[in-house]
Amino acid sequence: MSSYDVKKEVTDKYSLRGRVFNKIREDILNGRYKVKEELREVAIGEEMGVSRTPVREAFRQLELEGLIQIVPNKGAYVTGITAKDVRDIYMMRSLLEGLCARWATENISKEQMEEMEENIFLSEFHASKGHAEQMAELDNRFHEIMYEACNSKMLEHALKDYHQYVLRVRKKTLSTQTRSTASNAEHRKIMEAIKEGNADMAEQLANRHMINAYENMVKNGFIEHYEEE
Amino acid sequence: MSSYDVKKEVTDKYSLRGRVFNKIREDILNGRYKVKEELREVAIGEEMGVSRTPVREAFRQLELEGLIQIVPNKGAYVTGITAKDVRDIYMMRSLLEGLCARWATENISKEQMEEMEENIFLSEFHASKGHAEQMAELDNRFHEIMYEACNSKMLEHALKDYHQYVLRVRKKTLSTQTRSTASNAEHRKIMEAIKEGNADMAEQLANRHMINAYENMVKNGFIEHYEEE
DNA sequence: TCTCGTATGATTGTATACAATTATACGAGA
DNA sequence: TCTCGTATAATTGTATACAATCATACGAGA
């Protein structure tokens, strides 16, 4: 539980605390703040023109998000993510994405099914044109559709969490041409299994899809830079 | 889940904020605060003799923990957990406990293996004596040993999260005699599979163990009371 | 009686002030 | 030169004060 994947997202983007939270989060994911860098309350507060109070509250949330670690009476430090952490998350995700595909097969709506088909159609188009930006966007969206279609807010939240978490590492993974094509083909097969109502197949394909994505990352050396310890 | 399951636990139990956090959390899990009850900052602060500041920070964390929901400018409300949520979590846990058993098979240390054997031995003893309290304790510990033995802090954290989360529902589940006996037998089989180095078997047994635990809960009607929506 | 607007109170959001803790610098003594 | 203790500065922890928002009560008008 700690929370668990049930935790709420920071929805009030318009409160100072929400804005601070999102800004720091983004800066960490973007790599502006390096691993083990110390975040000072006053500095961030001054930068955004707010007092320490909303900054501190944002820190507490970021700690539970796993992005920073707060040492009592000392400070807040950006947490690292090891290569093994990434591997573990992908293995966990693999199982849960499989479960998600299974539940999506049982619960997907007509509209969601259509959006998924459209997504794949568009992906194949942009792949043929070499549009990396749109490809990444569509890839994310494909998984989101599946998360929504599985009809479980617990599972959806867990998967979104994992997805967010590995974003730090993943960034430009999809930009290789060969992986893009393979990924599209895998998406299509998953979609077809869902459409046919073949839950076993959908689960198995989604399983494999995650593992393939991970192995591609390893092969192209996208992980090592983030190693620590 | 926010993060993800990677988020930190609240470790500084000795800060006011940490104490407030743990107290509120416990009160929610214990059922002192009912679902949808509104938590007021001043009231809780006065009760514990602290100001609003540490209470507010604790609230932010509890929100990400999924125990409360904060509506901007309105208040903090205890979140409910539906029967479907519990079911979903158990299905997710089933998969991840299986993975955990697999990794434990590959990574367990000699000391951990011995503690696990001792745990089972003690469990069977207390079962024969009908000591419900110790049984529950040992059951929790069995899973913790496996979490530690899997040698993955990501997976360990995720599983501890889920475990904590369903504690609200589970409470006295194990107290039925028949389930206690069956649970012990399942633990023993998992342990033996790990000891023999049979990862596939360990995974499969741990999978099934979770599902059995869930089905037992349903059969005995431990869930319905927590339903909402 | 019902509806709606206003006023009042309650509660949260943020800023600031002060206390406690930790880090750093510097100098005395060996 | 090195070590260690003290003083000072910097930073976090908590309390309080004020601002903004929301809920409630009440009364005027229809």
Write structural notes for this entry:
- 2 copies of one chain form a homodimer.
- Chain A has 229 residues and is mainly alpha-helical.
- In chain A, strands 1-3-2 form a 3-stranded antiparallel beta sheet.
- In chain A, a hairpin with a 3-residue loop joins strand 2 and strand 3.
- At the A-B interface, helix 3, helix 4 and helix 7 of A face helix 3, helix 4 and helix 7 of B.
- Chain A binds a DNA duplex (30 and 30 nucleotides) through helix 3.
What is this structure, in a nutshell?
The structure is a homodimer of 229-residue chains. Chain A has 229 residues and is mainly α.
SS-based structural class of chain A? mainly alpha
- DSSP, total strands of chain A: 3
Secondary-structure element sequence of chain A?
A: HEHHEEHHHHHH
Biggest interface, chains and residue tallies: A-B, 48 and 51 residues
Secondary structure tally, helices of chain A: 9
Write the layout of secondary structure elements.
The structure is a homodimer of 229-residue chains.
Chain A lengths: L15 H14 L8 E2 L1 H8 L3 H14 L2 E4 L3 E4 L4 H25 L2 H20 L2 H18 L3 H18 L6 H20 L2 H21 L10
Helix pairs in contact in A: 1-3, 2-3, 4-6, 4-7, 4-8, 4-9, 5-6, 5-8, 8-9
The structure holds a DNA duplex (30 and 30 nucleotides).
